[in-house]
Prior knowledge:
Elements: H1 10-14, E1 19-23, H2 26-39, E2 45-49, H3 55-69, E3 74-77, E4 83-84, H4 92-119, E5 125-129, H5 142-162, E6 168-173, E7 177-178, E8 186-187, H6 191-203, E9 209-210, H7 211-223, E10 228-230, H8 233-244, H9 246-257, E11 271-272, H10 282-301
Protein name: Short-chain dehydrogenase
Family: Belongs to the short-chain dehydrogenases/reductases (SDR) family.
Keywords: Oxidoreductase
Amino acid sequence: MRHLSLIHVYKRQARGCAVTLAARDGDELKNAEAMLRHRHPRTAVHGVVCDVRDQEAVRALMRRAHEVAGGPDIVVANAGIIQVAPLDSIGAEEFRSAMDTMFAGALHTALESLPYLRRSPYGGRLALISSVGGLLGVPHLLPYACAKAATGVLAEGLLTETAADRVSVTGVYPGLMRTGSHLHAQFGGDRSKEFAWFSALAGAPLISMNAQRAAERIVSGVVRRRARVVLTPAARAAGLAHGIAPATTVRLSALAARLLPKGTGTREPLREGNSIAPPEGFAARRLRAWGSAMNDRAAHAYNQRTA
């Protein structure tokens, strides 16, 4: 993702861990380091510019983390992009981009960290961040859902493959999160309306989850070596429903898709949320403003500010 999210590092700092951050954007990485040092001045924090789509870069990241802080003993793979658009507004390129960033990124992170995790005197821990989108196909988020589903399967397979090595692998399935991601998600089709519904759901207090609380749940699950952590009641309900009655769940999802904005019938480049003009119409503008309010506050707290 373009901007680094900080939500998964706070509690590990409180547990006395040195923290290595990685992101593609060097400026945002420096800002993240400064934020963490300000909040936790006694914690060792350092950043490494790294594109997780490049396995050699990930190898260098792990080597650097080992040289600077020892270990690594705990690794969290959380790189991601969000593309919100109906199917007729995207093509194979968007699917490849999602798979390269989220699945290949998680794969490279796992493969390059496992040699260190196997040698950890504490027993290594690896967490791969999937999504509720990895539990069932989500309309207008299909590339994202495909990549997250592959990441979830990877976590399950790695768990079975590494069990004898004292390495635990945790698959994490967040639901909607208030992280400010709506500002840097990429939108296609009727962009204003797509942004309105996505930001409304991602910021709704009864549907989405506070990022700090989610971070605590994730860290707790990783420390306890849980195989799976599913966040938000809605995500748990969706995963359960799909497991028990997959055909019915898919039909209900198809009905929900009819309520989403219609495609424009043309393909244009996706645009980030922070560059999208407000929608026309009072109801659409109110929906966008209501949904974005809590997420806009989260954007500053979790280093997702606009460029």
